[in-house]
Amino acid sequence: MTVVTLPTAEMLDLFGPAPDGVTLEVWDIESPHPRPSSVIGVLIPAYFRGGHRWQYVHDLPGLELLQLPSAGYEWALPHVPGHATLANGRGIHDDETAELAVGLALTSLRNLDVHTLERTRQEWTVRLGRSLAERRVLVVGHGSIGREIAARFEAFKSHVTVVARTAREQDGRQVHAFTELPTLVATADVVVLITPLTDTTAGLVSAELLAAMPDGALLVNVARGGVVDTEALVAELSSGRLSAALDVTDPEPLPAGHPLWTTPNTVLTPHVGGNTGLSVPRTVDLMRRQVAALAAGRPLVNVVEPEGAGSPAA
């Protein structure tokens, strides 16, 4: 018997019948599992990872698969037992995150955040906004989410250029390399970040890269806060030269008193890119396919490989 643990009763109910030889149970990793640790073969943690007692995961000698519900995986790497496979949630949050990227851009460009605040003061102020149509949009990251983001901006008649770790021709599109970023950002009206956080991408958007962006440009970050030099971004925002729409920050959660709470030209959301009603059913669907593959001896999907090889936004 192999035990597959899911973090909530809702996910257990949605899963449906398990394959022969597989038992489904709820376990949130907050206390030791009551069964012998050797029978737990597949584990999925909750999407919001704060508070997990990861020592209990290291005590699972029979663990075959640690399945993440998120596309990002850097936070889980220190907790994966050497004998277990790590897989991410590639594909689960593509639509949700792409929608938010467009929503953040529109909020900033069309002053929707400002108008919302003015409503609370009963102020009727007409402002000239900026459209997405004809805007030059640079999407940094061309994994599954990056492709969805590019497609959505193109639907708004933006001129989209995409960048990834390596240059290539993919799906009829020219993908530029990270090394070309200093040149590409210099002509971008909107820069959208959707890269994984790795040794290569940490601090990728440096003070020098921000300085290369044209006056009035907008930075949209739906990737990880650590991709951006926060101090340099705060300086650019404080000067009023750039705008930012951020779903992620470094540090995160953003502590009270941090400058990003009060910088001008800034839109903030609390890391909700994948947080909609689609998340749970799509996560369960992926788990169902992974468990069936294990039971039948078929290859797993979304296996995390060395940097860049299988990353969600490579």
Query: What percentage of the residues does DSSP assign to strands (E)?
Result: 15-25%
Helix content: 25-40%
Q: H/E series, N to C? A: EHEEHEEHHEHEEEHEHEHEEH
Helix/strand/pairing class, anyone? alpha/beta
Whole-number mean pLDDT: 93
Question: C-alpha Rg, in Å?
Answer: 21 Å
Biggest β-sheet description: 8 strands, mixed
Shape: elongated
* Strands ordered across the widest β-sheet: 8-9-7-6-10-11-12-13
pLDDT under 50 segments (min length 5)? 308-314
What is the subunit arrangement here? Answer: single chain
Number of continuous helical runs? 9
Strand tally is 13
Distance between the termini: 37 Å
Quick overview of this protein structure:
The chain is of the alpha/beta class. It is 28% helix and 17% strand.
Can you describe what's shown?
- The chain has 314 residues and is an alpha/beta fold.
- 28% of the residues lie in helices and 17% in strands.
- It is built from 9 helices and 13 strands.
- The protein has an 8-stranded mixed beta sheet, with helices on both faces. A 5-stranded parallel beta sheet has the order 2-1-3-4-5.
- Helix 5 links the parallel strand 6 and strand 7.
- Helix 1 crosses helix 9 and helix 3 crosses helix 5.
- The C terminus is likely disordered.
Topology:
Layout: E1 2-6, H1 9-15, E2 22-26, E3 40-43, H2 55-58, E4 65-67, E5 85-87, H3 94-109, H4 112-120, E6 136-140, H5 144-155, E7 159-164, E8 168-170, E9 173-177, H6 181-185, E10 190-193, H7 207-212, E11 218-221, H8 230-239, E12 243-246, E13 266-268, H9 279-296
What are its keywords?
314 residues; alpha/beta; 8-stranded mixed beta sheet; 5-stranded parallel beta sheet; 13 strands
